[in-house]
Structure formats: structure tokens, C-alpha cells
Amino acid sequence: MWRVALIAIALLAVWGALAARLGVLHLGSNEALAERVRRMRTVKEDILVGRGRILDRNDRLLALDLPVQNVCVDPVVVLSNGQARAVSVQLARVLGLPQAQVYDRVNRPGRRYEPVARLVREEVANEVERLKMPGVFFEPLTTRYYPHSDMGCHVLGFSNKEGVGSAGIEQRWDPLLKGRPGFRQSERDGNRREIYTRRSLEVAPQEGADIYLTLDQNIQHFVEKALDAAMTNFHPEAAWAIVEEVRTGAILAMASRPAYDLNDYNKTEADTRLNRAVGVNFEPGSVFKVGVVAAALNEGLISTNDLFDCENGMWFYANRPLRDFHPYGTLDVTGILRKSSNIGAAKIAVMLGEDRLHRYLTAYGLGKPTGLEVPGEESGLLHPRSKWTKVDITRVAMGHTVAVTALQMLNVMCCIGNDGFLMKSHLVRKVVDKNGGVLQENKPEALARPITERTAALMRRMLTEVTREGGTGTRGAVPGYNVAGKTGTAEKIVDGRYVKNENVSSFMGLLPAERPEIGIIVVLDNPQPLRTGGVTAAPVFAQIAAPVARYLDIRPVDANELVYYRQILAGAP
Question: How far is it, in rounded angstroms, from Cα 471 to Cα 487?
């Protein structure tokens, strides 16, 4: 009997203690405990905001945010239901993960949050949700997606996993693209679901603005296809090219090789991600002669048919020898450009003089960044006039002792194509917020007019001879069009010395020469075994220019004859 009595007393004590505790909880002051419960139920979260889109000049998507989900589990709930194995099997099947890996996440007693899979596509997350497994929940997120993988990769850049623009347009325009996240404070129930009636604070997010570029997706494709072929055919270490609208300065295409997949950017080296079109300084070689000859023409010092003795390939100036690639005797100014004579260009530069030459080069925008709307642009190298040695003027004339970016050099050519007006290059057409308001819009802007309309016309006429028979750039000719072009081949500098058999080869041109609409530059870094710009870069130029001219419907020189024959064929039985 005493044992029964002892058990009864113990039970009464336990029930009494529980009753006392319930009384304290219901009737006593429990502010600290109530605050703890409130903290457990309260949820404060940022409302994610969509990053703005990037589109081309025809409003085709180049970059956008896609909705994704993090699939997570609450191990306490899953384990309390005895469903750890079943949940692991189902999640592993749908998510395509090893079952052991999923079970390791689920089987963690005392944990309330464990991510199982991150950045899962919505359709996959929806399939998981349809299984209605207690303890499995989702975190909505967005991820950056580039539908064309590597197309325009060096211009677009990428947004990293934290949603921060880290290269190209994504980095330069990050403050406008990323918008402003919102904020929400609410409460959730025991299954971690929000109790909507308890939502106490909500600040709406401000979505990022859309960036509309001047790039044309089709023209970009033509350029990248041609560069890929150049990498195969000429084996350069790298290659890059730009297509620019002559009258406006709008960049229609800009590409570099090697390229990388923007959706997998973290698996590439920094050198691969370099936008060489604006981020590499190089000695331009003979393409630089167009600026020198144009300056002397503009000053009235020479005319197109003036004759110069090119010294049969060897000329001494300031006791230093200057050589031509091939020996020439007497050439007129057109011949100097057609044959790309170093000696002829140097003699013209000496006539012009150091001060005037330096002034013109500065007016062309050399020696300073163009201000293009991407990070990492180099400024080139143009030494102050006071630092020139006596022999420098003859070396500058042939594109040595100076350095340029491809965009700077193309701008000089486009200045010649645009009747002497130097236009400001731009990649961004407009920035538009989510309400359709235009935050910024770029219009064509002339920065300077270094040469006159007459000088520009004479230069185009002479440069057309470069792509005709007897010129150095015949492989840059485009059937049906007159091309004003110029070749360039410069020895590379390694450890402060020029290295033979290693070159930077280039070709730039205007099409059509009579009234140019597009300017194109192609640069190949150390092509092998063929090395000169005329046999490497020039054919790449033609491979770009031909489809671009057709795509833009640029009128060929024999357009009337083509129309005439079409009419006859159309009327034929």
C-alpha cells in the first residue's frame, strides 16, 4: 500500500506543478517569454528585385534575370514525422542529386534550416512543391542569364552570384541595373509559412532599369564568326574587331577572341575576359599613316600627286636608318599610301613638323580614353611633344613609338569617313526605367573637326587605291563596293626590344568609300605563319564587311544594273 501511495503522491506533485506552471503562464507577467515567442515568429526579409535587362539596338534580349528557387528543408519537422528517408529519396529523384548527399542534409537533428539545392529552375521547384512534403520549403531568388552564352561577352560582362555587376556593361551600369530591394516584416506559423494578416511593414522594391545598346546582334554574329575563322586560319594569340557607324559613332559590334561563356564566367582566366578592343594598347604600324598624311593635306603642304623619293628602301634621318618593307623609288602621295611606304610617310611628317603633327594627333583623340561606357579602357600612348627625340617624328609617322587602342584608331578612320568630324563613340543607346521613363539617351555628338571635308574626300579617294590592284590591301576588297582601307603591320615589343617574326597585324576600312556608312577595324595579335596585315587582317575585314553591307542594305556601286537585271528576270517567262 505504501508503494501505491508513493506513486499517487508523485503523480499529484507532477500534475500540481504543471497546473501551477499553467497558472503562471496564463495569469502571471511573462513579457520576456512573450517577446521570445514573437522573435521566433517574426520574419524580416528583403524583397528581391529584378535586375534590369540588357537589349540590343533592335530590342533583342542579351541579358535578363530568371526566377529560380533554393530548395531547403527543416530537419526538425522532417525527423519528427519520421520521413527523413522518404523525403531524401523524393528530393534526390526530382533534383537529380545523390540520395546520400540529400539525406546528409535532412538528417541533422535540431537544425531548422538546411539548403538542399540552390538556384533550381522554377519548373523543377514546382515539381518538388507538388509532392507536398512537410518540412520542405523554398526561397525565391533570381539568377542572371545570358541567352547567347558567349556572344558579346566582353561588352556585356557579367553579374556575379551576389548580383553585383563585375565586368563590361554589367559593371559600368550596375547602379542603374540593380535597382533597389524592398523590405517586409511579418510573422510565420509553425510550418514556417507566412501569416499574411500579421504583415506589419512592407516597402516596395524599385526594379532596375533596362539598358538598350547600340550593338546589333546580327552584326555581332558576323564579326564573331569571322574572328573564329581567323583564329583557325591564322593562329593568332588573340584577335579583336569593331564595327562603327561612321555618321553617329554608334558601335554596332565589338568582339574579342578568345571568348568565354557568360553563364559560366567563373571558369575562365582574367586574360580571357579582357576586352581587347579597348583594353589593349598596341603600336599600330602603318594604319597610323592615314592620320599623318591627312594632317599634311589639310595644311596644304602636299597634294595627292606630289612626288617623293623613297630612296630605294633605305633612308637615313638623324643618323638613323629607316627601311621600307619593299624598296621603292619615286612615289606620289597616293602611291605612298597604296604601297605603305615608311620612308614616304616619314618625309611627309618631317614637312609637317613636330608641333603640328602632335597637335593633329591630339585633335584625333589619341593619347586619351574615348570615354566608351565600359570599364577598363586604355588611353593609348602619345608622348608630350617635349619628350620627342629628333628621330621620333619619322617613327611616329609609321606608327611606332606611339600606342593606340583599336577604337581610337578606328575613330581616326571614321573621322575621314565623316567629312572630318570626329564623333564620340558610344555603346549605350538609352536607359529606360520600368515605368518606361527614359533616364538617359545618347545622341550623336561631334567632338572635333581635325580636317576639312575636302581633305577627308581626298583621303578616301587615295585609300580606295589600297584595296585595288597594286595596293597592300587587295584582300580587303568587297565585291560590289569601293573600300577605302589601310593595312598595318607592327613588330611586337618584348622586354623593350622589337622582335622579328612577331607582329600585330591590322586592317581598317570604310564602306562605301564614296559616302561611308560603316567603319571596321580588325586586329590580329601575332598571326602565324603569315604575318602582314594585308594577308591576315584584310581578308577578315572583307569577311565581316560583305554580310554587314548586305544586312544593312548598303547600296552597291552597281545597284542600278542589278535592279535592271532583276526586272528582266522577273518579267521572263
Answer: 9
Closest CA to 231 of 276, 169, 281: 276
| Count of residues making up the chain | 573
Of the ranges 137-146, 206-215, 370-379, 556-565, which one carries the lowest mean pLDDT score? 556-565
Give every CB contact of residue 507 below 8 A, 6+ residues apart in sequence. 287, 473, 476, 485, 486, 487, 488, 521, 522, 533, 534, 537, 538, 540, 541
pLDDT value of residue 565:
40
Dihedrals φ, ψ of 493, to 5°? -100, 125
Average pLDDT, rounded, for the chain: 88
Q: How confident is the model at residue 68 (pLDDT cuts 50, 70, 90)?
A: confident
Could you give the C-alpha distances from 322 to 173, 216, 283, 347, 362, in angstroms and in order? Answer: 47, 43, 17, 11, 25
Q: Whole-angstrom Cα distance, residue 570 to residue 148?
A: 39
Asked if residues 531 and 537 have their Cβ atoms less than 8 Å apart, the reply is: no
* Residue 21 or 543, more confident: 543
- Within 13 Å, how many C-alpha atoms sit on residue 309's CB side? 4
- Show the cell assigned to 422: 570626329
Give 34-45 as a 3 state SS string. HHHHHHHHEEEE
Residue pLDDT, tens place only, 305-340: 999 999 998 999 988 999 988 999 999 999 999 999
- Provide the pLDDT for residue 571: 44
- Pair 42, 185: CB distance under 8 Å: yes
Show Cβ contacts of residue 119 under 8 Å, excluding neighbours closer than 6 positions.
Answer: 68, 69, 70, 141, 143
Cα of 541 vs its chain's centroid, Å: 20
* Topology match between the domains 45-188+196-213 and 217-560: no
Element (H, E) at 349: helix 342-352
Q: Which region holds residue 438: left if phi is over 0, alpha if psi is between -120 and 50, else beta?
A: beta
Q: Which residues of 559-570 are buried (b: 16+ CB within 10 A; e: fewer)?
A: eeeeeeeeeeee
Which 3 state secondary structure label does DSSP give 53?
coil
Cα–Cα distance for residue pair 143/214, rounded to 1 Å: 25
Rounded CA-CA distance 534/511 in Å is 17
Give 425's contacts (C-beta < 8 A, 6+ positions apart).
Answer: 244, 249, 250, 251, 370, 371, 372, 407, 411
- Give the span between the Cα atoms of 22 and 2, in whole angstroms: 30
CATH architecture of 217-560: 3-Layer(aba) Sandwich (3.40)
Among the listed residues 463, 454, 506, the one whose alpha carbon sits nearest the alpha carbon of residue 484: 463
The hierarchical CATH code for the domain 45-188+196-213 is 3.90.1310.10
For the chain, give every domain's residue range.
Answer: 45-188+196-213, 217-560
Cα–Cα dist 335/158, whole Å: 47
DSSP string for residues in 420-460: T-EEPPBSEEEEE-TTS-EEEE----EEE--S-HHHHHHHH
Confidence of residue 3 (pLDDT cuts 50, 70, 90): confident
Q: How many secondary structure helices (H) and strands (E) does the chain include?
A: 20, 22
